[in-house]
Amino acid sequence: xxxxxxxxxxxxxxxxxxxxxxxxxxxxxxxxxxxxxxxxxxxxxxxxxxxxxxxxxxxxxxxxxxxxxxxxxxxxxxxxxxxxxxxxxxxxxxxxxxxxxxxxxxxxxxxxxxxxxxxxxxxxxxxxxxxxxxxxxxxxxxxxxxxxxxxxxxxxxxxxxxxxxxxxxxxxxxxxxxxxxxxxxxxxxxxxxxxxxxxxxxxxxxxxxxxxxxxxxxxxxxxxxxxxxxxxxxxxxxxxxxxxxxxxxxxxxxxxxxx
Amino acid sequence: xxxxxxxxxxxxxxxxxxxxxxxxxxxxxxxxxxxxxxxxxxxxxxxxxxxxxxxxxxxxxxxxxxxxxxxxxxxxxxxxxxxxxxxxxxxxxxxxxxxxxxxxxxxxxxxxxxxxxxxxxxxxxxxxxxxxxxxxxxxxxxxxxxxxxxxxxxxxxxxxxxxxxxxxxxxxxxxxxxxxxxxxxxxxxxxxxxxxxxxxxxxxxxxxxxxxxxxxxxxxxxxxxxxxxxxxxxxxxxxxxxxxxxxxxxxxxxxxxxxxxxxxxxxxxxxxxxxxxxxxxxxxxxxxxxxxxxxxxxxxxxxxxxxxxxxxxxxxxxxxxxxx
Lengths: 259, 324
What we know:
The structure holds 2 protein chains of 2 kinds. By secondary structure, chain A is α/β, with parallel strands linked by helices. Helices cover 27% and strands 33% of the residues of chain A. Chain B has 2 domains: 12-176, 3-Layer(aba) Sandwich (Rossmann fold), CATH 3.40.50.620; 206-322, Rossmann fold. Chain B has 8 helices and 17 strands. The longest helix of chain B is centred in the N-terminal third of the chain and has 15 residues, at 78-92. The mean pLDDT of chain B is 95. At the A-B interface, helix 4, helix 5, strand 9, strand 10 and strand 11 of A face helix 3, helix 4, strand 7, strand 8 and strand 9 of B. Chain B: One of its GO terms (cellular component) is mitochondrial matrix. Chain B: This is Electron transfer flavoprotein subunit alpha. Chain B: Keywords: Electron transport, FAD, Flavoprotein, Mitochondrion, Transport.
Protein backbone atom coordinates (compact mmCIF):
# COMPACT_ATOMS: atom_id res chain seq x y z
CA UNK A 1 0.00 0.00 0.00
CA UNK A 2 1.21 3.48 -0.83
CA UNK A 3 1.69 5.50 2.31
CA UNK A 4 2.70 9.09 2.69
CA UNK A 5 5.15 9.84 5.45
CA UNK A 6 2.91 12.01 7.65
CA UNK A 7 0.83 8.94 8.59
CA UNK A 8 3.86 7.53 10.29
CA UNK A 9 4.97 10.45 12.33
CA UNK A 10 6.77 9.85 15.52
CA UNK A 11 6.49 12.66 18.02
CA UNK A 12 8.72 13.26 21.01
CA UNK A 13 7.63 15.58 23.80
CA UNK A 14 9.85 16.95 26.49
CA UNK A 15 8.44 17.38 29.97
CA UNK A 16 9.88 19.19 32.99
CA UNK A 17 8.92 18.83 36.64
CA UNK A 18 8.74 22.32 38.11
CA UNK A 19 7.46 24.09 41.21
CA UNK A 20 3.72 24.49 40.63
CA UNK A 21 2.93 27.77 38.90
CA UNK A 22 0.57 28.85 41.67
CA UNK A 23 3.31 28.70 44.33
CA UNK A 24 4.99 31.98 45.19
CA UNK A 25 8.64 31.07 45.61
CA UNK A 26 10.55 32.76 48.43
CA UNK A 27 14.22 33.59 48.67
CA UNK A 28 16.15 33.11 51.90
CA UNK A 29 19.87 33.08 52.66
CA UNK A 30 20.81 33.67 49.04
CA UNK A 31 18.82 30.57 48.01
CA UNK A 32 15.46 29.78 46.53
CA UNK A 33 13.22 28.02 49.02
CA UNK A 34 11.76 25.30 46.84
CA UNK A 35 12.00 22.32 49.20
CA UNK A 36 8.56 20.87 50.01
CA UNK A 37 6.90 23.04 47.38
CA UNK A 38 4.12 21.48 45.36
CA UNK A 39 5.57 20.23 42.07
CA UNK A 40 3.78 19.75 38.74
CA UNK A 41 4.29 19.34 35.04
CA UNK A 42 5.46 22.65 33.51
CA UNK A 43 2.22 24.19 32.13
CA UNK A 44 3.67 24.69 28.64
CA UNK A 45 4.72 21.04 28.53
CA UNK A 46 1.11 20.01 29.22
CA UNK A 47 0.21 21.94 26.09
CA UNK A 48 3.00 20.16 24.18
CA UNK A 49 1.70 16.76 25.32
CA UNK A 50 -1.86 17.68 24.36
CA UNK A 51 -0.75 18.69 20.87
CA UNK A 52 1.09 15.41 20.38
CA UNK A 53 -1.95 13.45 21.57
CA UNK A 54 -4.19 15.39 19.19
CA UNK A 55 -1.83 14.58 16.30
CA UNK A 56 -2.22 10.93 17.22
CA UNK A 57 -5.99 11.22 17.46
CA UNK A 58 -6.06 12.78 13.99
CA UNK A 59 -4.09 9.72 12.84
CA UNK A 60 -1.16 11.87 11.82
CA UNK A 61 1.15 10.38 14.41
CA UNK A 62 1.58 6.79 15.42
CA UNK A 63 3.76 7.04 18.46
CA UNK A 64 4.51 9.58 21.16
CA UNK A 65 7.59 9.36 23.34
CA UNK A 66 7.76 11.53 26.44
CA UNK A 67 11.19 12.52 27.73
CA UNK A 68 12.23 14.07 31.01
CA UNK A 69 15.59 14.93 32.50
CA UNK A 70 15.69 15.14 36.26
CA UNK A 71 16.09 13.38 39.56
CA UNK A 72 14.26 10.16 40.52
CA UNK A 73 11.09 12.03 41.41
CA UNK A 74 10.82 13.40 37.87
CA UNK A 75 9.36 10.01 36.96
CA UNK A 76 5.96 11.26 38.12
CA UNK A 77 5.72 13.76 35.24
CA UNK A 78 6.31 10.89 32.80
CA UNK A 79 3.45 8.93 34.43
CA UNK A 80 1.25 11.99 33.92
CA UNK A 81 2.38 12.27 30.31
CA UNK A 82 1.53 8.61 29.70
CA UNK A 83 -1.83 8.94 31.46
CA UNK A 84 -2.56 11.73 28.97
CA UNK A 85 -1.76 9.51 25.99
CA UNK A 86 2.00 9.23 25.49
CA UNK A 87 3.03 5.69 24.54
CA UNK A 88 6.54 5.44 25.90
CA UNK A 89 8.80 7.40 28.15
CA UNK A 90 12.49 8.04 28.57
CA UNK A 91 13.80 9.23 31.92
CA UNK A 92 17.32 10.62 31.94
CA UNK A 93 18.19 10.39 35.62
CA UNK A 94 20.32 13.14 37.12
CA UNK A 95 21.64 12.83 40.69
CA UNK A 96 19.71 14.99 43.18
CA UNK A 97 22.58 17.38 43.82
CA UNK A 98 23.02 18.23 40.15
CA UNK A 99 19.37 18.06 39.08
CA UNK A 100 18.46 21.64 39.90
CA UNK A 101 21.34 23.04 37.92
CA UNK A 102 20.88 21.32 34.59
CA UNK A 103 20.76 24.20 32.14
CA UNK A 104 18.86 24.44 28.84
CA UNK A 105 22.08 23.86 26.87
CA UNK A 106 22.77 20.56 28.68
CA UNK A 107 19.12 19.55 28.24
CA UNK A 108 19.34 20.28 24.52
CA UNK A 109 22.61 18.32 24.26
CA UNK A 110 21.01 15.34 26.03
CA UNK A 111 17.97 15.52 23.73
CA UNK A 112 20.35 15.71 20.76
CA UNK A 113 21.88 12.38 21.89
CA UNK A 114 18.42 10.85 22.33
CA UNK A 115 17.39 12.05 18.88
CA UNK A 116 19.53 9.36 17.25
CA UNK A 117 17.72 6.64 19.23
CA UNK A 118 14.16 7.96 19.21
CA UNK A 119 14.31 9.38 15.66
CA UNK A 120 11.23 11.56 16.00
CA UNK A 121 9.84 13.55 13.06
CA UNK A 122 8.67 16.27 15.39
CA UNK A 123 9.88 17.38 18.79
CA UNK A 124 7.35 19.38 20.76
CA UNK A 125 8.56 21.30 23.80
CA UNK A 126 6.95 23.99 25.90
CA UNK A 127 8.01 27.52 25.00
CA UNK A 128 9.52 28.06 28.43
CA UNK A 129 9.71 26.47 31.86
CA UNK A 130 8.07 28.61 34.52
CA UNK A 131 10.98 28.17 36.97
CA UNK A 132 14.09 29.30 35.06
CA UNK A 133 12.12 31.42 32.56
CA UNK A 134 14.85 30.91 29.94
CA UNK A 135 12.69 29.95 26.97
CA UNK A 136 15.74 28.62 25.12
CA UNK A 137 15.68 24.82 25.04
CA UNK A 138 13.69 24.35 21.82
CA UNK A 139 15.87 26.83 19.92
CA UNK A 140 19.05 25.23 21.28
CA UNK A 141 17.90 21.73 20.31
CA UNK A 142 16.91 22.85 16.81
CA UNK A 143 20.27 24.58 16.43
CA UNK A 144 22.23 21.55 17.61
CA UNK A 145 20.29 19.22 15.32
CA UNK A 146 20.44 21.66 12.41
CA UNK A 147 16.69 21.37 11.89
CA UNK A 148 14.07 24.11 11.59
CA UNK A 149 12.25 25.51 14.62
CA UNK A 150 8.69 26.68 15.17
CA UNK A 151 8.71 28.63 18.42
CA UNK A 152 5.74 30.26 20.21
CA UNK A 153 3.43 28.01 18.19
CA UNK A 154 -0.30 28.71 18.45
CA UNK A 155 -1.34 26.45 15.56
CA UNK A 156 0.31 23.41 14.02
CA UNK A 157 -0.76 21.73 10.78
CA UNK A 158 0.96 18.69 9.34
CA UNK A 159 0.50 18.07 5.65
CA UNK A 160 2.51 16.60 2.81
CA UNK A 161 5.69 16.12 4.74
CA UNK A 162 5.76 19.71 5.97
CA UNK A 163 4.66 21.38 9.17
CA UNK A 164 2.91 24.73 8.97
CA UNK A 165 3.25 26.65 12.20
CA UNK A 166 1.43 29.81 13.22
CA UNK A 167 3.62 31.67 15.66
CA UNK A 168 2.72 34.33 18.22
CA UNK A 169 4.98 37.30 17.52
CA UNK A 170 5.10 40.88 18.86
CA UNK A 171 2.61 42.37 16.46
CA UNK A 172 0.30 39.44 15.78
CA UNK A 173 1.02 36.13 14.09
CA UNK A 174 3.57 34.80 11.65
CA UNK A 175 3.04 31.67 9.57
CA UNK A 176 6.05 29.56 8.59
CA UNK A 177 6.44 26.22 6.89
CA UNK A 178 9.06 23.77 8.16
CA UNK A 179 10.55 20.58 6.79
CA UNK A 180 10.76 17.53 9.06
CA UNK A 181 12.34 16.69 11.37
CA UNK A 182 11.70 19.90 13.24
CA UNK A 183 11.43 21.26 16.76
CA UNK A 184 8.29 23.07 17.89
CA UNK A 185 7.72 25.09 21.05
CA UNK A 186 4.15 25.34 22.32
CA UNK A 187 2.66 28.69 23.28
CA UNK A 188 -0.35 29.13 25.54
CA UNK A 189 -2.96 29.39 22.82
CA UNK A 190 -1.97 26.18 21.02
CA UNK A 191 -4.64 24.15 22.82
CA UNK A 192 -6.34 23.46 26.13
CA UNK A 193 -4.73 20.47 27.81
CA UNK A 194 -7.04 17.72 29.02
CA UNK A 195 -7.00 16.19 32.50
CA UNK A 196 -5.82 12.62 32.92
CA UNK A 197 -8.66 10.18 33.60
CA UNK A 198 -8.41 7.79 36.53
CA UNK A 199 -8.39 4.55 34.45
CA UNK A 200 -5.65 6.06 32.30
CA UNK A 201 -3.64 6.99 35.38
CA UNK A 202 -3.88 3.34 36.47
CA UNK A 203 -2.87 2.08 33.02
CA UNK A 204 0.01 4.55 32.85
CA UNK A 205 1.55 2.88 35.89
CA UNK A 206 2.17 -0.19 33.78
CA UNK A 207 3.60 1.54 30.72
CA UNK A 208 7.36 1.16 30.28
CA UNK A 209 9.85 3.84 31.21
CA UNK A 210 13.29 3.61 29.73
CA UNK A 211 15.71 4.81 32.40
CA UNK A 212 19.16 6.13 31.51
CA UNK A 213 21.86 7.49 33.76
CA UNK A 214 22.95 10.91 32.56
CA UNK A 215 26.62 10.02 33.11
CA UNK A 216 26.39 7.35 30.40
CA UNK A 217 25.31 9.82 27.72
CA UNK A 218 28.63 11.61 27.62
CA UNK A 219 27.12 15.06 28.04
CA UNK A 220 28.81 17.50 30.39
CA UNK A 221 26.00 18.81 32.59
CA UNK A 222 28.16 21.12 34.70
CA UNK A 223 26.49 24.55 34.64
CA UNK A 224 28.00 27.24 32.43
CA UNK A 225 26.30 29.89 34.50
CA UNK A 226 27.20 30.08 38.16
CA UNK A 227 24.74 31.80 40.41
CA UNK A 228 26.45 34.52 42.40
CA UNK A 229 23.47 35.96 44.17
CA UNK A 230 19.74 35.37 44.53
CA UNK A 231 17.53 38.01 46.09
CA UNK A 232 13.87 38.82 46.32
CA UNK A 233 12.70 41.73 44.24
CA UNK A 234 12.42 44.98 46.14
CA UNK A 235 9.07 45.24 47.83
CA UNK A 236 6.93 48.14 46.70
CA UNK A 237 5.94 50.73 49.25
CA UNK A 238 2.46 50.18 50.64
CA UNK A 239 -0.12 52.09 48.68
CA UNK A 240 -3.37 53.72 49.67
CA UNK A 241 -6.96 52.76 49.01
CA UNK A 242 -9.18 55.62 48.06
CA UNK A 243 -12.94 55.78 48.53
CA UNK A 244 -14.20 57.73 45.55
CA UNK A 245 -13.33 58.28 41.89
CA UNK A 246 -12.76 61.96 42.72
CA UNK A 247 -10.12 60.97 45.26
CA UNK A 248 -8.52 58.60 42.77
CA UNK A 249 -8.36 61.27 40.10
CA UNK A 250 -7.01 63.78 42.60
CA UNK A 251 -4.22 61.40 43.69
CA UNK A 252 -3.30 60.45 40.13
CA UNK A 253 -3.48 64.03 38.89
CA UNK A 254 -1.93 66.01 41.74
CA UNK A 255 0.19 63.52 43.67
CA UNK A 256 1.45 61.02 41.10
CA UNK A 257 0.99 63.46 38.18
CA UNK A 258 0.19 60.67 35.74
CA UNK A 259 -3.24 61.83 34.60
CA UNK B 1 23.82 54.21 36.01
CA UNK B 2 27.32 52.89 36.49
CA UNK B 3 29.45 52.80 33.40
CA UNK B 4 31.98 50.04 33.02
CA UNK B 5 32.99 50.67 29.44
CA UNK B 6 36.41 51.97 30.33
CA UNK B 7 37.24 48.84 32.28
CA UNK B 8 35.56 46.21 30.16
CA UNK B 9 37.19 44.73 27.15
CA UNK B 10 34.22 43.20 25.41
CA UNK B 11 33.33 43.50 21.78
CA UNK B 12 29.60 43.22 21.32
CA UNK B 13 27.54 42.24 18.30
CA UNK B 14 23.94 43.44 18.53
CA UNK B 15 21.61 41.54 16.22
CA UNK B 16 19.41 44.42 15.12
CA UNK B 17 15.74 44.13 14.38
CA UNK B 18 14.21 46.69 12.05
CA UNK B 19 10.51 47.57 12.23
CA UNK B 20 9.06 49.83 9.53
CA UNK B 21 12.52 51.01 8.55
CA UNK B 22 13.58 51.91 12.10
CA UNK B 23 15.60 50.09 14.74
CA UNK B 24 13.07 48.44 17.06
CA UNK B 25 12.81 49.84 20.62
CA UNK B 26 14.07 46.48 21.94
CA UNK B 27 17.18 46.80 19.74
CA UNK B 28 17.86 50.32 21.05
CA UNK B 29 17.69 49.03 24.64
CA UNK B 30 20.03 46.17 23.74
CA UNK B 31 22.50 48.71 22.33
CA UNK B 32 22.50 50.59 25.65
CA UNK B 33 23.15 47.36 27.56
CA UNK B 34 25.88 46.42 25.05
CA UNK B 35 27.60 49.80 25.30
CA UNK B 36 28.34 49.09 28.99
CA UNK B 37 30.61 46.25 27.87
CA UNK B 38 32.57 47.62 24.95
CA UNK B 39 32.39 48.82 21.36
CA UNK B 40 29.08 47.92 19.73
CA UNK B 41 28.63 46.51 16.24
CA UNK B 42 25.09 46.26 14.89
CA UNK B 43 24.24 43.50 12.42
CA UNK B 44 21.54 44.15 9.83
CA UNK B 45 20.55 41.67 7.15
CA UNK B 46 17.89 41.48 4.48
CA UNK B 47 17.04 42.64 0.99
CA UNK B 48 17.23 46.27 2.11
CA UNK B 49 20.30 45.89 4.32
CA UNK B 50 21.83 49.03 2.83
CA UNK B 51 19.01 51.30 3.96
CA UNK B 52 18.90 49.56 7.35
CA UNK B 53 22.66 50.06 7.76
CA UNK B 54 22.22 53.75 7.01
CA UNK B 55 19.64 54.01 9.81
CA UNK B 56 21.84 52.08 12.24
CA UNK B 57 24.92 54.30 11.64
CA UNK B 58 23.03 57.20 13.26
CA UNK B 59 22.15 55.32 16.44
CA UNK B 60 24.09 56.53 19.50
CA UNK B 61 26.73 54.14 20.86
CA UNK B 62 26.97 52.09 17.67
CA UNK B 63 30.59 52.05 16.45
CA UNK B 64 30.26 49.73 13.47
CA UNK B 65 27.50 48.30 11.34
CA UNK B 66 27.72 44.98 9.53
CA UNK B 67 25.35 44.79 6.59
CA UNK B 68 24.41 41.55 4.88
CA UNK B 69 22.35 41.69 1.69
CA UNK B 70 20.11 38.72 0.93
CA UNK B 71 16.35 38.26 0.75
CA UNK B 72 16.55 35.04 2.74
CA UNK B 73 17.18 37.22 5.80
CA UNK B 74 13.84 39.00 5.43
CA UNK B 75 11.25 38.00 8.06
CA UNK B 76 13.97 37.10 10.58
CA UNK B 77 13.96 33.35 9.97
CA UNK B 78 16.25 31.84 12.65
CA UNK B 79 17.45 29.01 10.38
CA UNK B 80 19.04 31.64 8.12
CA UNK B 81 19.97 34.22 10.76
CA UNK B 82 21.71 32.00 13.32
CA UNK B 83 24.47 30.76 10.95
CA UNK B 84 25.07 34.37 9.88
CA UNK B 85 25.48 35.48 13.51
CA UNK B 86 27.77 32.51 14.12
CA UNK B 87 29.87 33.41 11.05
CA UNK B 88 30.14 37.03 12.23
CA UNK B 89 31.31 35.87 15.67
CA UNK B 90 33.92 33.54 14.18
CA UNK B 91 35.30 36.08 11.71
CA UNK B 92 35.31 39.15 13.91
CA UNK B 93 35.85 37.60 17.36
CA UNK B 94 32.92 39.13 19.21
CA UNK B 95 32.83 38.33 22.92
CA UNK B 96 29.13 39.06 23.29
CA UNK B 97 26.03 38.71 21.14
CA UNK B 98 23.03 40.75 22.30
CA UNK B 99 19.52 41.25 20.98
CA UNK B 100 16.36 42.71 22.39
CA UNK B 101 13.87 40.43 24.09
CA UNK B 102 11.36 40.29 21.27
CA UNK B 103 9.91 37.33 19.40
CA UNK B 104 12.81 37.82 16.96
CA UNK B 105 15.59 38.01 19.58
CA UNK B 106 14.25 35.09 21.60
CA UNK B 107 14.03 33.01 18.44
CA UNK B 108 17.44 33.78 16.92
CA UNK B 109 19.89 34.30 19.80
CA UNK B 110 19.57 30.86 21.49
CA UNK B 111 19.89 29.12 18.13
CA UNK B 112 23.05 31.07 17.37
CA UNK B 113 24.32 30.15 20.86
CA UNK B 114 23.76 26.47 20.06
CA UNK B 115 25.97 26.79 16.97
CA UNK B 116 28.72 28.24 19.15
CA UNK B 117 28.14 25.66 21.91
CA UNK B 118 27.28 28.36 24.44
CA UNK B 119 24.55 28.69 27.05
CA UNK B 120 22.33 31.69 26.29
CA UNK B 121 21.27 34.09 29.03
CA UNK B 122 17.68 35.17 28.60
CA UNK B 123 16.20 38.56 29.40
CA UNK B 124 19.01 40.23 31.28
CA UNK B 125 17.95 43.22 33.37
CA UNK B 126 21.41 44.34 34.43
CA UNK B 127 25.08 44.18 33.42
CA UNK B 128 27.37 43.72 36.44
CA UNK B 129 30.54 42.90 34.55
CA UNK B 130 31.56 41.54 31.19
CA UNK B 131 30.62 38.02 32.28
CA UNK B 132 28.11 38.80 35.03
CA UNK B 133 24.46 39.58 34.40
CA UNK B 134 21.25 40.01 36.35
CA UNK B 135 18.01 38.30 35.36
CA UNK B 136 14.72 37.25 36.90
CA UNK B 137 13.40 33.75 37.46
CA UNK B 138 10.19 32.24 38.84
CA UNK B 139 7.95 34.88 37.27
CA UNK B 140 10.07 37.68 38.69
CA UNK B 141 9.94 36.36 42.26
CA UNK B 142 13.71 35.91 42.35
CA UNK B 143 16.44 38.22 41.05
CA UNK B 144 19.46 36.17 40.08
CA UNK B 145 23.00 37.30 39.33
CA UNK B 146 24.79 34.81 37.09
CA UNK B 147 28.38 34.60 35.95
CA UNK B 148 29.01 32.96 32.60
CA UNK B 149 31.97 30.71 31.86
CA UNK B 150 31.30 30.72 28.13
CA UNK B 151 33.73 32.23 25.68
CA UNK B 152 30.96 34.14 23.95
CA UNK B 153 28.01 35.46 25.95
CA UNK B 154 24.72 35.26 24.10
CA UNK B 155 22.11 37.42 25.82
CA UNK B 156 18.68 38.77 25.17
CA UNK B 157 18.08 42.11 26.87
CA UNK B 158 14.87 43.07 28.63
CA UNK B 159 13.85 46.34 26.99
CA UNK B 160 12.22 47.83 30.08
CA UNK B 161 15.44 47.49 32.08
CA UNK B 162 17.63 49.75 29.91
CA UNK B 163 17.12 53.19 28.41
CA UNK B 164 16.82 53.17 24.65
CA UNK B 165 19.85 54.50 22.74
CA UNK B 166 19.03 57.69 20.83
CA UNK B 167 18.22 57.00 17.18
CA UNK B 168 20.13 60.11 16.04
CA UNK B 169 23.57 61.54 16.71
CA UNK B 170 25.79 58.52 16.11
CA UNK B 171 28.27 58.10 13.30
CA UNK B 172 29.18 54.46 12.76
CA UNK B 173 31.15 52.92 9.91
CA UNK B 174 29.51 50.38 7.64
CA UNK B 175 31.17 47.16 6.47
CA UNK B 176 29.71 44.39 4.36
CA UNK B 177 29.37 40.89 5.73
CA UNK B 178 29.02 38.21 3.09
CA UNK B 179 25.67 36.42 2.96
CA UNK B 180 25.63 32.66 3.47
CA UNK B 181 23.83 30.37 1.04
CA UNK B 182 20.14 29.94 1.99
CA UNK B 183 19.48 26.97 4.31
CA UNK B 184 15.96 26.55 2.93
CA UNK B 185 14.68 24.20 5.63
CA UNK B 186 12.04 26.72 6.57
CA UNK B 187 9.88 29.03 4.54
CA UNK B 188 8.13 32.25 5.48
CA UNK B 189 4.46 32.04 4.51
CA UNK B 190 2.78 35.19 5.80
CA UNK B 191 2.46 37.75 8.55
CA UNK B 192 -0.94 38.27 10.11
CA UNK B 193 -0.32 41.50 11.92
CA UNK B 194 -2.83 43.43 13.95
CA UNK B 195 -2.79 47.06 12.95
CA UNK B 196 -3.20 49.45 15.80
CA UNK B 197 -3.10 53.23 15.90
CA UNK B 198 -2.22 53.11 19.60
CA UNK B 199 1.35 53.35 20.90
CA UNK B 200 3.36 50.17 21.21
CA UNK B 201 2.54 48.32 24.43
CA UNK B 202 6.14 47.70 25.43
CA UNK B 203 7.24 51.32 25.04
CA UNK B 204 4.14 53.33 26.00
CA UNK B 205 4.43 55.74 28.93
CA UNK B 206 0.97 54.79 30.11
CA UNK B 207 -0.67 51.38 29.94
CA UNK B 208 -4.30 50.63 30.72
CA UNK B 209 -5.05 46.95 31.10
CA UNK B 210 -8.22 44.95 31.40
CA UNK B 211 -8.76 41.56 32.99
CA UNK B 212 -11.61 39.15 33.45
CA UNK B 213 -13.66 41.95 35.01
CA UNK B 214 -14.04 43.46 31.53
CA UNK B 215 -16.57 40.69 30.81
CA UNK B 216 -16.38 41.06 27.00
CA UNK B 217 -14.18 42.28 24.17
CA UNK B 218 -16.76 44.92 23.33
CA UNK B 219 -16.27 46.48 26.77
CA UNK B 220 -12.62 47.28 26.01
CA UNK B 221 -14.07 50.38 24.31
CA UNK B 222 -14.31 51.86 27.80
CA UNK B 223 -10.53 51.54 28.18
CA UNK B 224 -9.85 52.64 24.60
CA UNK B 225 -11.50 55.97 25.16
CA UNK B 226 -9.33 56.85 28.14
CA UNK B 227 -6.28 55.40 26.39
CA UNK B 228 -6.78 57.63 23.36
CA UNK B 229 -6.96 60.72 25.57
CA UNK B 230 -3.79 59.76 27.44
CA UNK B 231 -1.98 58.42 24.38
CA UNK B 232 -1.77 55.15 26.29
CA UNK B 233 -1.48 51.55 25.14
CA UNK B 234 -4.08 48.98 26.09
CA UNK B 235 -2.99 45.66 27.58
CA UNK B 236 -4.75 42.58 28.84
CA UNK B 237 -4.38 39.48 30.98
CA UNK B 238 -4.03 35.94 29.75
CA UNK B 239 -7.61 35.19 30.78
CA UNK B 240 -9.16 37.73 28.43
CA UNK B 241 -6.83 36.85 25.56
CA UNK B 242 -7.72 33.18 26.01
CA UNK B 243 -11.39 34.11 26.07
CA UNK B 244 -10.87 35.74 22.67
CA UNK B 245 -11.80 39.26 23.84
CA UNK B 246 -8.57 40.77 22.52
CA UNK B 247 -5.62 39.54 20.41
CA UNK B 248 -2.60 37.77 21.90
CA UNK B 249 -0.11 40.58 21.35
CA UNK B 250 -1.92 42.56 24.06
CA UNK B 251 -1.02 40.07 26.79
CA UNK B 252 1.07 41.44 29.65
CA UNK B 253 2.76 38.94 31.94
CA UNK B 254 5.38 36.27 32.48
CA UNK B 255 4.69 34.73 29.09
CA UNK B 256 3.37 37.81 27.35
CA UNK B 257 5.00 41.21 27.18
CA UNK B 258 6.94 42.92 29.93
CA UNK B 259 6.07 46.55 30.43
CA UNK B 260 7.35 49.20 32.82
CA UNK B 261 5.47 52.39 32.01
CA UNK B 262 5.22 55.51 34.17
CA UNK B 263 1.63 54.64 34.91
CA UNK B 264 -0.16 51.30 34.83
CA UNK B 265 -3.90 51.28 35.35
CA UNK B 266 -5.24 47.78 36.04
CA UNK B 267 -8.98 47.34 35.57
CA UNK B 268 -10.75 44.19 36.71
CA UNK B 269 -7.50 42.26 37.13
CA UNK B 270 -6.98 40.13 40.25
CA UNK B 271 -3.17 40.36 40.11
CA UNK B 272 -2.02 36.76 39.67
CA UNK B 273 1.76 36.14 39.95
CA UNK B 274 2.00 35.57 36.20
CA UNK B 275 0.42 38.92 35.29
CA UNK B 276 2.28 40.93 37.91
CA UNK B 277 5.58 39.50 36.58
CA UNK B 278 5.02 41.50 33.42
CA UNK B 279 4.30 44.91 34.94
CA UNK B 280 5.55 45.22 38.52
CA UNK B 281 8.37 47.56 37.53
CA UNK B 282 5.83 50.18 36.49
CA UNK B 283 6.45 53.46 38.33
CA UNK B 284 2.89 54.17 39.44
CA UNK B 285 0.29 51.42 39.68
CA UNK B 286 -3.42 52.04 40.17
CA UNK B 287 -5.89 49.20 40.59
CA UNK B 288 -9.64 49.24 40.08
CA UNK B 289 -11.39 46.10 41.30
CA UNK B 290 -14.69 45.26 42.95
CA UNK B 291 -13.00 42.57 45.05
CA UNK B 292 -11.23 44.20 47.96
CA UNK B 293 -9.28 40.98 48.57
CA UNK B 294 -7.72 41.04 45.07
CA UNK B 295 -3.94 40.47 45.49
CA UNK B 296 -3.27 43.35 43.10
CA UNK B 297 -4.09 45.86 45.86
CA UNK B 298 -0.95 44.71 47.71
CA UNK B 299 1.35 46.21 45.11
CA UNK B 300 -0.83 49.11 44.00
CA UNK B 301 0.14 52.68 44.82
CA UNK B 302 -3.50 53.62 44.54
CA UNK B 303 -6.47 51.31 44.74
CA UNK B 304 -10.20 51.71 44.57
CA UNK B 305 -12.76 49.04 45.40
CA UNK B 306 -15.36 49.93 42.83
CA UNK B 307 -16.87 48.84 39.52
CA UNK B 308 -14.48 49.65 36.68
CA UNK B 309 -17.43 50.57 34.48
CA UNK B 310 -18.11 53.45 36.89
CA UNK B 311 -14.49 54.41 37.55
CA UNK B 312 -13.01 54.43 34.05
CA UNK B 313 -15.71 56.55 32.35
CA UNK B 314 -15.61 58.97 35.30
CA UNK B 315 -11.83 59.27 34.98
CA UNK B 316 -12.24 59.79 31.25
CA UNK B 317 -14.65 62.65 31.87
CA UNK B 318 -12.32 64.26 34.39
CA UNK B 319 -9.34 64.01 32.04
CA UNK B 320 -11.46 65.53 29.28
CA UNK B 321 -12.49 68.38 31.55
CA UNK B 322 -9.02 69.12 32.93
CA UNK B 323 -6.79 68.10 30.06
CA UNK B 324 -4.39 65.17 30.37
